Amino acid sequence: MSTAAEAAFAKGLEGVVAGETTICSIEQGGLYYRGYEIHDLSRNATFEEVAHVLLVGHKPSPSELAAFKAELVSERALPAPVIDFLKSSGPWLKSGHAVPMDVLRTAVSILGHLDKDCQDNSAAANLRKAKRLLAKTPTIIGHMQNVIDGKPIVGQEKGGDPSLDHAANLLYMMTGAKAPAEYARCIDVSLILYAEHDFNASTFACRVIAGTLSDMHGAVTGGIAALKGPLHGGANEAAMEMLKEIRTFIEAGKGSVEDFMKKAFVEKRKLMGFGHRVYKNGDHRAPILGGLGREIARKQGPGQLKWFEIGDEVQKIMLRDKNIHPNVDFPCGMTYFVMGIPVPQYTPIFVAARMSGWCAHIMEQHANNRIIRPLSMYTGHPTRKWN
Fold this sequence. Notes:
- Helices cover 61% and strands 3% of the residues.
- By secondary structure, it is mainly α.
- The protein folds into two domains: 228 residues, Orthogonal Bundle (Citrate Synthase, domain 1), CATH 1.10.580.10; 104 residues, CATH 1.10.230.10.
- It has a three-stranded antiparallel sheet with strand order 1-2-3.
- A hairpin with a 2-residue loop joins strand 1 and strand 2.
- The longest helix is centred in the middle third of the chain and has 27 residues.
- The chain is globular, with a radius of gyration of 22 Å.
């Protein structure tokens, strides 16, 4: 490897510009989806509007939004083979041989076999597939949770309740009950916050796969596999499990949050929900979701608010001792938990949001493609002879 190549090496591609995009911009001062700042979107937009911006490319007019929402509703129901697969997944999920992200990954892959546009990478076909995937992902999650709970599948014929918006219908399918408006809005905002985030690991995986001119379902399946990891999408689940461990530690009389954190630092534990490769001064999304979750917990009483109080202490210690800010996964864990969402479904819900961003990037890659093929720096054995 040449000296120039060695100088260009960046472990994990840190700091390397790997491509161009018109979809998202991550800056120290803000996060932007096609020019719209995340605080503005979380206050004033719905997830369906944001998904339209990402997939279609512009803010929808009222008539465009109505048509877009109607199309999503019409595509919610799952084909019979996918439902059969989900019903068969119960033993794997209950045994621990599979987790919801594994089942979701396979269900999306099966959808590819059943989509008449699967092998067509044209812009029009890709947009149709993107809408179907966006509509069907929450249905997969809802039906899967019904199977885990051993209950009848909710809304099988129509993929839920056609009168409910995207976020509210997701909660409805998981539980069979219509969620309070406050819960639905909180999930809607979380979907907006998780919808898109530049060339993150899963999105980059999607673009690498799409760059070979593979199909959208294949690329998205790869994205789900990448998102599963605890260093990426699985961090929200791991963050909540850590908070549960801290609370148990305190309530067992073993010590304080400070004591737990000191022990964790000595043991060099990886504390999930903190730090970010790009953001150096904190994740813009974290306080938005944390504020919504805290208000829900406050209304539920001291027992639920305690999660956020513990979280506050953890954040202060991490900032004081390590100068590391929380990312959006940290408040996400607490927020979903106080709404009663099962922890193993946190990352699948992330998929329901990021599906919009992934599909936008796949379409952008297909529209202006060059296969993604970086170099590597060989560090193995020097040249040697076989005989």
